[in-house]
Design a protein that fits this description.
- It is a single chain.
- The longest helix is centred in the last third of the chain and has 20 residues.
- A 4-stranded mixed beta sheet has the order 3-4-5-6, sandwiched between helices. The protein has a two-stranded antiparallel sheet with strand order 1-2.
- Helix content is 45%, strand content 20%.
- Strand 4 and strand 5 form a beta hairpin.
- By secondary structure, it is an alpha+beta fold.
Amino acid sequence: LIEVGGIRVTSLRDTVLDLARVLPPARGLAIADAAAQAKHVDPVTSTALIERQRTQPSRRGLVRVRWVSARMDAASESAGESISRACIEWLGFETPELQRVFVYEDREYRGDFHFPSVGAIGESDGWGKYRLDEPEEAERILREEKLREDCLRRNGHAIARWTMSD
């Protein structure tokens, strides 16, 4: 237990470990990925999770913890991306490169997932980034996204998009 703001709580590492034991693996991965990004005095790493698990008497969820710890990646920028990575693996696709940067026509473009064997780019979309409640800003963002995709396609990349509901 640690104290945060005068309240005793479990540490971030122990919380991630406990959730990885009991949640569906893709959701546990999303939590571990987010924790790996956290600027924290006790960073959550794959090694730290496994070492902490070894000190606990319960073996409950050990296979899930090992699966999550072997795949956690701070480069995953959202729960949608983390869950997508799990689905990509389970569906038998190659392991994609995360957040790959492409430079075309003097601009940088980043893709959530890049599948090097075929040059395809995968995008795990959330609607929040489009700011649909601000019509002018939404128009600007959607226009930029369209131009980005057109450029990536001109340069030989197939693009697939999906949302969490997919």
